[in-house]
Specification:
Dna Ligase, domain 1, D-amino Acid Aminotransferase, Chain A, domain 1, Glucose Oxidase, domain 1, 4 domains, 8-stranded mixed β-sheet, 8-stranded parallel β-barrel, elongated, binds adenosine-5'-diphosphate, binds magnesium ion, metal ion binding, kinase, metal-binding, PEP_util_AS
Length: 883
Amino acid sequence: GKWVYLFGDGKAEGKASMRDLLGGKGANLAEMSNLGLPVPPGFTIPTTVCTYFYANNKSYPKELKAQVEKALDIVGKAVGKKFGDAKNPLLVSVRSGARASMPGMMDTVLNLGLNDVTVEALAANASDRRFAFDSYRRFITMYSNVVLGFEHHHFEDVLDTYKDSKGYSLDTDLNADDWQVIVGRYKEVIARETGNDFPQDPHEQLWGAIGAVFGSWMTARAVTYRRLHDIPESWGTAVNVQSMVFGNMGDTSATGVAFTRNPSTGERRLYGEFLINAQGEDVVAGIRTPQEITEAARKESGSDKPSMESEMPEAFAELTRIYQKLEKHYRDMQDMEFTVEQGKLWMLQTRNGKRTTKAALRIAVELANEGLISKKDAVARIEPASLDQLLHPTIDPNAERDIVATGLPASPGAASGEIVFSSDEAAKLHSEGHKVVLVRVETSPEDIHGMHAAEGILTTRGGMTSHAAVVARGMGKPCVSGAGSIRVDYGRGTLSVGGRTFKAGDIITIDGSLGQVLAGRMPMIEPELSGEFGTLMGWADQFRKLKIRANADTPADARTALRFGTEGIGLCRTEHMFFEETRIRTVREMIVAEDEQARRAALAKLLPMQRADFVELFEIMKGLPVTIRLLDPPLHEFLPHTQHEIEEVARVLNTDPRKVADRVRELAEFNPMLGFRGCRLAIVYPEIAEMQARAIFEAAVEAAKRTGKPPVIEVMVPLIATRNEFDIVRDRIDAMAQAVVKETGGKLTYQVGTMIELPRACLMAGEIAKSAEFFSFGTNDLTQTGFGVSRDDAASFLGPYLAKGILETDPFISIDRDGVGELVRIGAERGRKVRAKLKMGICGEHGGDPASVTFCHEVGLDYVSCSPYRVPIARLAAAQAAL
Ligand code: ADP
Ligand code: MG
Ligand code: MG
């Protein structure tokens, strides 16, 4: 087998496309060599050796040793040195490098090959003893730490004691003799603490380092990182062995890192830092303050330290030439590492640079405008989910933050408001015009109305997939979850943390992007939706086939959705209009009413409120389609709970509270989600559906009068299992439409369709489509009923299922293609067979999940509907699915 790939000297055995084999670092070192860039020669031991290593009881392929020896020879010849040689030793770095860059892997070891003999040669050849012993002590520190697992502080103690004894304050105060003494003391500490002498044999050092790289693939840190980032264990890491160049050879030498564009703003300008007379990680380690690379950046920062541009003009000119070449070649912003050895520039790494979403947008759009990539490429390059970062108000970055506690960044954006500790209180205060932050130990489905009413949600318990986190993300509300240091006392109405106490009504701010809880109200910045964001979204719209609608229950939702580019409302849940404090009482009257007459009386009170809701919604949506779903949730959810609520209802109905309590018991359900809900309500209590249909149609006539544009209405019947159910409800709706036309003389354009959210409905879709004019796949309920799993109760076992790999992803977040997806596919096919023009979409959480959007594109749906804040994400995901 081939276990070694050489690079350097203007050529290489590998190339960028061989990333799987050579790892990212190795592949790009090869690519840079092929481009003729100055790369110190070296070789890559491929990931296949790592795989072999773990498959064969941590041993190496038998040819490896000979191949490494040979490669060392070739590399040595290329630089005129020899590994282990007492006169002219080749020194190398040993660098790990997986396919994806992975913190948690072994740190790089520099200056490997130094020992008590070779250090003298290095000193003599460079005519610089200080440099040689500085390199040696660095090597001993890195090797001991990384390979021998020896703790840093031993060395720090030695160095500090020595500096104190000499009255030195900086490392640069130490001269050659000082470093030589330090090296001796380091070796003593190692021998004393580990019982072994520091290895003097360069070959032993090399294999020790190589083994450490492969060993680091399975450390707990690396395993955790891979699990969090979906990196398969089978990938393995590569090892790069590379001849050293020295940035610590005095004032004409340096080391640095640079981006071809600004990674936080995307601005097109070389951006980076460097340090004179330094090695490797000194720049990031913060030992000394690094200097700016360009003169322009130095002026802007007001630094008095010279820039690389002025200090090392030749190396800077070379870096400029190279970075432009690299960016053209890779057609993307590059993150580079370089070293200058006595005036000569060497490239040590390049990769596509990490960037903020804001920068990613600017860079993609500018690269396309510069002609380096196509518009399609630009659209393909933005991770749809990452847009979330941009779509919410954020705290003014210049504002002073009084951080009270931190938790998990569960849902992005920031919000300020009065502290409330109960959802009812939140809803009440909200309806009175207050802005509130809902603070709970944790939330449950009973808190939905409170979460809706709140500007943001803070919980002290629960993770990134807790109820609060998932629901908040769906609503586009900022949420900090699991802020464990906070103690909530519901009884007293206080929140305390670190000796500070906040009462209900006190103002706090949460930053859901950083997971921070802040005291007081913070100044906010509204998201900037123009500029590159607008340009890129415009390009995305040119490519996508799916239409994007929003789930919007309120005028505020609808306006947000329009701002984000929605093409209609795909789901308006009428029940949310009922949860409002003033209305819920009337809804309760309606529910506990003992006969139709009493029920109709309550419904008559709700009619004008509901009509007004729709008029406003139709006006806002101006001729775009609006899908209105008839009342869906279990009546159970609206029941009065407390004695106070029961008495309140009894008073209005003029009956005995005990009677009301009896009725409540009668209506209580064991399994409400599979109980008296959906179209079953409209069938058993037709007057409810009639009231809603009347409200919709009267509102339509009214809105048409006001705007001059007839609304495009889609009335949606939920939870259909049989065609019969649909026909019964549909007849009522049609009859109501006719009545309203007759009464008002107005004109109506509407369709009646259904949610497809039960497995039976998917199978019977052909039958249902004979009557229904559109389908909206309710993938939330379809997932619940398809899996037989209640979402609200899934927390206790879904986590272990995911951990054990029984499920790959949470099916409530990303659609289960194989099972639930197959039901959708069947429903779509059978429906279209009967009605070729059947309009089909999905609504629910999945509509804003990029992978699910891709699925919907593949199945050939007409649209997806998602929460307003996810509309841009869905637009981009739909475009990418169509590229
Ligand atoms: P990381 O993956 O943590 O960035 P690297 O392998 O890139 O680790 O090494 C870190 C730094 O070590 C490099 O940026 C470079 O400054 C230095 N380095 C690595 N190899 C060499 C070398 N052959 N000569 C000089 N410096 C090197
Ligand atoms: Mg690096
Ligand atoms: Mg449903």
